[in-house]
Write the structure tokens for this entry.
Amino acid sequence: MKRPTQFSRVHWQAATIISVGVAVCIFLLVYRLGSLTSGLSHGESLQQASLGWSHLAHDPLGAPLSLLQWLARSTFPSHAGLAARLPGAVLGFVTVGCFAYILRRWYGVRTALYGVALFVFSSWFL
């Protein structure tokens, strides 16, 4: 019973920094996601129209994104912009988390911080 409290006493600063970093990342990825542009683009509207089980059967490699799009569309039916863009933001956040974990395990904390900063601000991620 002492182990979780001892861990939190020793690592509270790291946990606070990580929590604040995650909150800032989520805020920046989701801020005005549905209303930043004035409507859906042609590709986003086609993407929303092609969601369904037959689409998953024809393109199983895109299943994670298609399932997130279907879930977002069924959760937010009246917010088409948010439902079209939220799955990309979720997958982007997961990608940054996985990339940070890999860099931390392979190269250390300092390289992970610099590498994640370079990755997040690169044009491929944005």
The helical segments are 2-10, 12-30, 42-49, 53-58, 63-75, 80-107, 109-120. The chain has a mean pLDDT of 83. The first helix runs from residue 2 to 10.
